[in-house]
Design goal:
The chain is mainly alpha-helical and about 160 residues long. Helices cover about 65% and strands about 0% of the residues. The chain has 7 helices and no strands. Helix 2 packs parallel to helix 7.
Length: about 160
């Protein structure tokens, strides 16, 4: 499979993605726990069917010490006992924030309150920006059919 576009060969896309990737680095440096960031990035990418992001975030999380059990259960996190209450709150917020176009109505007050119980305002800000960032990254990759499987942990960081 070949990508439809080479974003880095395009002056416009290349310039834009330079700034976009620096935003991703800022999120990585936020006070939102790194494990939570990878779980959320993985779940959003699963929902959006972004193979290249699933490949990246699975490998980065594993390289950072995440277990295969937890990574394999992200898609079914509601029925899994391996996630903390804080992680569950983040995953629920990520799902509702990602499924806006499905007519789900966005993030409910109950889900927001549950997340706010586990994360301070700075962490919540990082979580919301991460969900938005991942949805954008997923769309860029899915539209251009970026192939997955060759990512090396830390390649883009």
């Amino acid at each position: 499979m070949n990508a439809r576009l080479d974003y880095f060969a395009s002056p416009t896309a290349g310039k834009t993605l330079k700034y976009f990737m620096s935003a991703g680095k800022a999120i990585k440096g936020s006070p939102l726990p790194a494990a939570t960031q990878e779980l959320v990035a993985l779940r959003v990418s699963q929902i959006n069917g972004c193979a290249v992001c699933i490949d990246m975030h699975t490998k980065d999380a594993a390289a950072a010490g995440e277990t295969s059990v937890r990574l394999n259960l992200v898609a079914a996190w509601r029925e899994a006992t391996v996630f903390t209450e804080a992680e569950r709150a983040a995953l629920e917020l990520a799902e509702q924030g990602t499924r806006i176009a499905d007519g789900a109505g966005g993030v409910t007050d109950e889900v927001w309150a549950y997340a706010a119980k586990h994360y301070d305002e700075e962490q919540l800000s990082a979580l919301v920006v991460l969900v938005s960032f991942m949805n954008t990254a997923n769309r860029l990759n899915v539209i251009a059919q970026q192939p997955a499987g060759d990512y090396e942990p830390g390649q883009f960081h």
